[in-house]
Amino acid sequence: MTERQFRGTAEHYAAHRIPYPRALFGHLLRLVPGRQRLLDLACGTGELAIPLSERFGEVVAVDLEPDMVAAGMRKAPGLTWIVAAAEELLFEPGTLDLVTVGNAFHRLDRALVAARARTWLKPGGAIAVVNTDSVWRGTEPWQRTAVEIVAKWRPQVAPAKRASHEKVLRSAGFADVEERLFHVPHVWSVDGFIGYLYSTSVVSKAALGANAGAFERELRAALTGTLRETARFSCLTGYCR
Question: Scanning 40, 92, 97, 131, which has the fewest C-beta atoms within 10 Å of its C-beta?
Answer without folding.
Answer: 92
